[in-house]
Amino acid sequence: MFSYYFMLGVRSLRRNPALTALMVLTLAIGVAASVATLTILHVMSGDPIPNKSDRLFVPHFDNGPLEGYTPGDDNDSQMSYIDAVNLLGSKAGERRTAIFGIALAIEPERKDIGAFIAQGLAPTSDFFNMFDAPFLHGQGWTPADDKAGADVVVLSRKLAEKMYGDADPVGRRLTMGSQQFQIVGVLDTWNVVPRFHRIIGNDDGAFDDADELYIPFSSAIRHEWRANGSTSCNADYQPGYQGFLASECTWIQFWIETASAGDRAELQSFLDSYAIEQRKLGRMKRAAPNELYDVRQWLDHLKVVGNDSKLSAWLAFGFLVLCLVNTIGLLLAKFSVRASEVGIRRALGASRREIFSQFLIETMVVGLVGGGLGLLLAFGALALIAMQSKALTMVAHMDWVMLLVTFAMAVASAVLAGLLPTWRACQVTPALQLKSQ
Fold it and tell me: Which ranges carry the ABC3 transporter permease C-terminal domain (predicted)?
């Protein structure tokens, strides 16, 4: 019976083309607007590394001066060089990495490519395993390279192809920042969304482009390269690079990976003990709580999904409700002209339940057609949104989950809108309709 009613629903679309087109278009626009904003919110709020998001932690100490401090003030979420070096030398967690941004002048071997600036990171050797970075050629550097401050580099696939084409560049030497570096690895395409491991200090934050190169943290320090990104200094410090390193300026992002999520309490205890020891040395005078954020908490702390994005999603759903109200009115008009048909069917023995099923399935057909059109409109809307900025390009794309959500939302919306008109159609009195014929 379902297939028969479904075919009747398909045929009914051609019975009043203008009214049907208006219903489908109204539903499609509402669904497209909702799905487009929901897709962006879905991508922005997704878990970027679900297999270990509860085992990766950002520690945060408040090392600011006591003068002018009010308990509860939010201090910068980065770390000083002093604390980063101390934590790197500790046994906290299974892996540890300090990270800061770099920007270097590249001098390619190819004569047809002039010198250019490339942006990247200076992490430690644990970085690649901590964040599941995929390698196309070679591998990352070793802990021994960290210790020696070796001049080695890992390139992104995009940068490697720009300078070497499809050839494997591992083993070659590359001039960067007037220094010779040996290429030890090339990462495969690695677009993490949101880009959780380094949000602070980027133009587009969590939705910036992938980094182009990676060199050892200790090597960047040995060459006295300044951070390319956010640096916060709450007090004066001694002149020169060494004075900067010895200061309380915060400019490093730090991550710790534990063996299991259950090790969080032990890690927190270690951080608290470390802060107590530093206070004995005259540091961390504010005695503020030492925070520990896992990946999801870190994204929430930095407000990666802002209130504006959430408000946009609610407004889009409000627009969908408005479209459903209009669809209800159109369905009432469509079903009202079929009162005589319902009366004859009831007189021939059809039950109200059968009439209800028939008309409800017809609204499902409208929902399916509206969903198909809404999907096309959503793709168009996302394409227009992606053109607005580089950051939006990273999030304005639809996956299979949202593809299924689009059709489910369209059909559910049509069925919801059709409940009242369908119920009204079932209330037709056969005797009155037969008298009027």
Answer: 315-429
